[in-house]
From TrEMBL:
GO process annotations (BP): DNA-templated transcription initiation
Organism: Cognatilysobacter bugurensis
Coiled-coil regions, chain positions: none
Protein known as: Extracytoplasmic sigma factor ECF
SUPFAM superfamilies documented for this protein: Sigma2 domain of RNA polymerase sigma factors, Sigma3 and sigma4 domains of RNA polymerase sigma factors
Keyword Transcription included in the entry's annotation: yes
InterPro entries: HTH_Sigma70_ECF-like, RNA_pol_sigma-70-like, RNA_pol_sigma-70_dom, RNA_pol_sigma70_ECF-like, RNA_pol_sigma_r2, RNA_pol_sigma_r3/r4-like, WH-like_DNA-bd_sf
Keywords: Sigma factor, Transcription, Transcription regulation
Signal peptide: none
Domain RNA polymerase sigma-70 ECF-like HTH, chain residue ranges per copy: 6-186
Amino acid sequence: MTTASADITMLLDAARGGDRGSLDRVLATLYQELHSMARRQLAGQHGHTLDATALVHEAYLKLIGRREAQFDDRAHFFAYAASAMRSVVVDYARQRMAQKRGGDLHRVTDLPEDIEGGLRLDEETLGLDTALTRLAQVDKRLAQVVELRYFAGLSELEIAALLKRSERSIRRDWQKARMFLLASLRDEPAG
């Protein structure tokens, strides 16, 4: 374990014990990583009020607002961060769709292998969120891989390192999750 990882683990332990200052230090320490995740997620989104900094700050507010939020380690922290980012992005997409007043909704039938171009902040994100909620009811581990990949923008290699699993097992989980999500998205009624 590196010194930085050991420091974060100690801070997470203190945060778990109720020390809010330790959680703030963890967030400050990992801010750049969170910001990079948010930038990847929002790549190509121009003209929106949600930018990477706003996404990180909103996710932070969600993280500190969760009384039950306890982070056992770095992987657990990033899983919570990905979930918080997902929540912010989905809320933002819902607001945008409400402003469009039921604009052209269409059925989502594709799920790209990666989000190099960023997530679309529209009904596709809402459909993905619904399908991901269904997946979490069936297999939480697969849903976590999707959250880390799509909503945190991590690669399979990064997810494997974070979850202390092989890249091959993460790839298999991703493929299983993707098949489930695609089937779920195709079965979902359009608007």
